[in-house]
Predict the structure.
Amino acid sequence: MNDSPKIILITGASSGIGAATAQRLAAAGHHVVLGARRLDRLAALTATIRAGGGSAEHLALDVTNQESVHSFVQEAHRRHGRVDVLVNNAGVMPLSRLDALRVDEWDQMIDVNLRGTLHGIAAVLPLMKAQRSGHVINVSSTLGHDVVPSSAVYSATKFAVKALSEGLRKEQQDIRVTVISPSFTESELNTLGGDPDTMAWVRTMADKLNMPASSVADAIAYVIDQPVAIDVNEVIIRPLVEA
Ligand code: NDP
């Protein structure tokens, strides 16, 4: 039994890191509110968590739509009277070289990875300020620290997530802000879009290097369960063989 269970909202909870994080945090006794577009996935995960004795619910969420993110957060707040943690995790990674001019996919990465994170911050900031407490966890990437050929736009969105997080942390005294920067992690991230040759290379690397999503979930659980006066600013996590 967790003696300080929190109300934790997770975006992109229908697969990969978000789903693993939901399971990890629910197992630690927190209540998780799952958001994503694939409601069938969320319903199955909610049922699994509840069957294991955890506490979970899910709501439809499209992070590219400010109204959708606002409704997601407001509904969780209406039901529980507070929002302790927002995990801004939803993301997409259709990698390609800039000269491939896959401009629609650039826009998609900006809309989900950057605008989606901003929408999450906009939705929780007034509530957390009023509570005089809260924790915003933004999932960036090791590609938020480094740029490789084909990662320019994805890296730009993830560098931006780091910048936003730094700004939020420096502006707010009562709100904890953490950046989680994983490297190759088991998920569905490399299955959608991008240049086919680049993505095939990413999948080959992922087969060699992938960390389990539960390792990233463990890092998120660690930062949440620190004493409230302790703010872990960033966790960078990679497979040892890559280092
Ligand atoms: P997955 O593809 O497995 O999960 C991505 C999640 O984002 C899904 O739940 C998806 O849900 C959700 N999502 C995508 N678009 C939207 C949208 N418009 N609105 C709401 N949810 C959306 O990948 P990961 O678990 O790997 O990705 C999670 C985060 O981790 C991302 O930010 C990613 O950039 C980051 N990351 C991943 C790494 C890896 O190697 N896997 C490494 C470094 C960082 P749905 O489609 O149902 O809406």
